[in-house]
Write a structure and sequence with these properties.
The chain has four helices and three strands. The chain is mainly alpha-helical. The chain has a three-stranded antiparallel beta sheet. The chain is globular. It starts with a helix and ends with a strand.
């Protein structure tokens, strides 16, 4: 593939991915405000943006076997933990941006857990097994992820367990 086309596919993937997430967030807000059909519209178009992003990533050859995908996930989460979020948090702190600093700190702590969970799942897949995992709970405030049981309150942000999303 030519470098220009590759770059354009990566840029399109990033844009479609952001639109997908933005529209899901907008849908949540519309739902909170009582606009059920607007929320449904946002979710439908968010799904279309997901389809576009999936097509671009597939064309780039970046969707592999599950073990490879888990390896890429571990690598991405580890980069966020070791380099990206510490640097972002430091800049936010130096600029007195408390909200951004909190957001980066929440993400960093959750990404540590995600890297560990992906690593364990990859080990199982490399042995030809599915990962042995119970219920998964995610904090709606900070993204902290717990397996099996949720603590009474989120260990990162203090959110009560009743608000966690279950997967």
């Amino acid at each position: 593939m030519s470098e220009m086309t590759k770059r354009f596919l990566k840029e399109a993937f990033a844009g479609e991915s952001q639109a997908h997430m933005r529209y899901l967030i907008f849908a949540e807000k519309a739902e909170e405000e009582g606009f059920k059909n607007v929320a449904r519209l946002f979710r439908a178009i968010a799904y279309a943006e997901f389809v576009h992003a999936k097509n671009h990533l597939t064309e780039l050859g970046e969707v592999g076997k599950t073990a490879d995908n888990l390896g890429a996930a571990v690598e991405g989460e580890t980069f966020e933990v070791e380099e990206m979020y510490p640097a972002y948090r430091e800049v936010a702190e130096s600029q007195g941006e408390a909200g951004a600093q909190r957001s980066f700190s929440f993400a960093l702590r959750a990404e540590e857990i995600h890297a560990d969970l992906y690593g364990k799942a990859r080990e199982a897949v490399l042995k030809g097994q599915d990962t042995d995992i119970g219920k998964i709970f995610v904090c709606p405030v900070c993204g902290c992820t717990a397996v099996g049981e949720t603590p009474g309150r989120c260990p990162v942000c203090g959110c009560p367990r009743e608000r966690f999303a279950e997967f």
